[in-house]
Amino acid sequence: MTTTTTIDRDSEGRTAKAEKPNLGLLAGAATAGAALGMLAMIGRKAAVQAPSALARDWVEALTLEHKAVLKIFDALEATDSRNTTKRAMLLAQMKHALVKHDVEESSVIYPALREAGQVEAADHLTKDHGYVKQHLYELDNSPKDSPDFLIKVRKFRADIEQHMTEEETELFPALRAQLSEEKNKHLTSAMNKEGFKVA
Asked: What is the CA angle 49-157-195, rounded to 5?
């Protein structure tokens, strides 16, 4: 740290050296640190958002996100009871990916389904997301070395794959076909903005 040496006089007239920090340099360093932190956060957000942001449209983006989550399931299922730290890290990664995905679908896509007259389908998918959160809660609160851990992971995977298949093969392609090209572009943009907020 850079300091400035000053000479002060006490009440009896004696001189004393005082080392004072250079506040200008400290403020500059703090500002530079904050700027680097902000750039790192934006870079992390861009990296997390990149796979879906590079997709041609919102259906492809969400499908890519589904595939990314399934890869995390693959990695979880390849662990054994000794891999408690790895299981915890993979579960945290999955939670982050699914929270982002939930925000994109719940804030943009499901309202568009409702607007297009698919209220029952949107409500069904929203309910499924509640069960996803329940599965995550149960896994988060399960001992990572428990024999039941992978049983719960496999049950969760079966449920979420059914949800993903319904979205990818039926509901999302039908909605995309029903909407204009301009509306589909708007959904893609709006979904990416929502995802970037939580990436």
From this structure: 15
Per-residue pLDDT of 148-163, as tens digits, reads 999 999 999 999 999 9
CB 64 within 8 A of CB 192: no
Looking at residue 55, the DSSP 8-state letter turns out to be S
**How many Å apart are CA 74 and CA 69, to the nearest integer?**
9
Tokens encoding 68: 């990314």
Q: d(Cα 48, Cα 58) in Å, to the nearest integer? A: 16
Residue with tokens 């149960």: 138
pLDDT at 37: 60
> Rounded to an integer, what is the distance from CA 161 to the centroid of its chain?
20
- Beta-carbon contacts of 104 under 8 Å, excluding residues fewer than 6 positions away, are 52, 62, 65, 191, 192, 194, 195
pTM of the shown model: 0.75
Tell me the C-alpha distance between 195 and 104, whole Å: 6
